[in-house]
Specification:
The protein is of the alpha/beta class. 17% of the residues lie in helices and 34% in strands. The mean pLDDT is 92.
């Protein structure tokens, strides 16, 4: 079973993620979803980023609305995530770009607790794994970071290949590798965070 959480800063919502999913709108993400003609199973948040009229629209197009106290210890995204934590697959649409970079960093921390999580926007997919995999299709660059200090990986089918490399948590070696042909990421031990990107954004 799959759950999808929609945030406010996702501009292109691919309906392939919505079909046969339990769909949650987090705060203004709920209004964003409705503007993309998506009805919601749950809308959750303190809704401090929507107007009264927008909240009425959210209530009309949601099966359930959970209003949170604006004075809280958890972000709206984390509250939404805990609501669907028992699902086999959890996708967050949005939450990568935006003016509040601290929220993006908080979202990256979620991968330590939620191994079944993916975060996706128009240009990027972020996920974690402890299993060997073939990279997701449709992306040009792959960045790999260790989530623990026991990680050992091998890479084939990339511009820069590795063989039984001990990748430590503070090691940035795995950034911006380019897929060439028949790529494969072999996890010999440990757990990694993978960031797939369609282009490099010209940041070096």
């Amino acid at each position: 079973m799959r759950a999808v959480i929609i945030l406010k800063n996702i501009s292109n919502i691919d309906k392939k993620y919505i079909d046969n999913s339990f769909v949650v709108g987090a705060d203004r993400g709920a209004y964003n979803a409705i503007m993309h003609n998506i009805n919601l199973d749950v809308s959750i948040g303190d809704f401090d980023s929507v107007t009264k009229e927008e909240l009425e629209i959210i209530e009309k197009h949601s099966k359930q609305v959970i209003k949170l106290n604006p004075i809280k210890d958890k972000t709206d995204t984390l509250e939404a995530l805990e609501l669907v934590k028992d699902y086999d697959e959890i996708i967050i649409l949005g939450g990568i770009t935006g003016k509040r970079i601290e929220h993006f960093y908080a979202n990256l921390l979620l991968f330590y607790e939620y191994p079944n999580l993916k975060i996706i926007d128009d240009n990027t997919l972020i996920m974690s794994t402890s299993k060997s995999i073939e990279p997701e299709e449709g992306y040009k660059f792959v960045s790999i970071f260790s989530l623990d200090d026991s990680t050992n990986i091998s890479l084939s089918g990339f511009k820069y290949e590795l063989n039984n490399y001990d990748l430590k948590m503070k090691d940035p070696l795995g950034i911006s590798n380019e897929i060439t042909h028949n790529p494969f990421i072999k996890i010999n031990s440990g757990k990694i965070l993978i960031i797939y990107t369609k282009d490099d954004g010209e940041i070096k």
